[in-house]
Amino acid sequence: MKGILGKKLMMTRIFEDNGNQIPVTLIKVSDNVVTNIKTEKKDGYRAVQLGAGSKRRLNKSQLGQLKDIKIKPARLFEIKTEKEFKIGDKININIFQKNQQVNVTANSKGKGFAGTVKRHGFHLGPKTHGSNNYRQPGSIGSSYPQRVIKGRKMPGRLGGDKVTLKNVKIVHLDQDRNLMLIKGAVPGPKNSYVLIWSSDEN
Fold first, then answer.
1. Of 119, 136, 147, 172, which sits most exposed with the smallest number of CB within 10 A?
2. Are 37 and 8 within one domain?
3. Judgement on whether residues 36 and 126 belong to the same structural domain of the protein
4. Rounded CA gap, 171 and 182, in Å?
């Protein structure tokens, strides 16, 4: 598996030579630095921990772990790989190629508390004849078992979930500006971190 962490900038579109337009999402990918190496002997599995971005302060556990590298990454993540890395190695967008199919994982936009119409797509109630049941969920139970059954679709928190899009296409790679253009929309708000990964080792 190979992966890299980037920051979602915005959506735009590009035009092909035949005039067709392609909606794309711009992702800024700075160098990802290897901060730790997991081994089967010590941790029970093989993986590489990468750090991306930067922030002003780290907590004490992170300061102790990253004291040899002297970086302050905003995000840390792990990828399982059989390749050999050393602490301090840098990974950039060169691990991917144009027109390659990749997966994108990010946290979707949080929309707060939402009703059943917005959250689950319930039908609206009648708007005429004095009806007060316009956006209410309606009946949520029956005479038996006299309780609300688990899994009942009801109002609640919407969004803010971990979402993975599979097999999305890399339309263009700008290595000079460390930009990656991915076809279509990517979950998450602007300036949020997204993980671009592939199960392919090559």
1. 147
2. no
3. no
4. 6
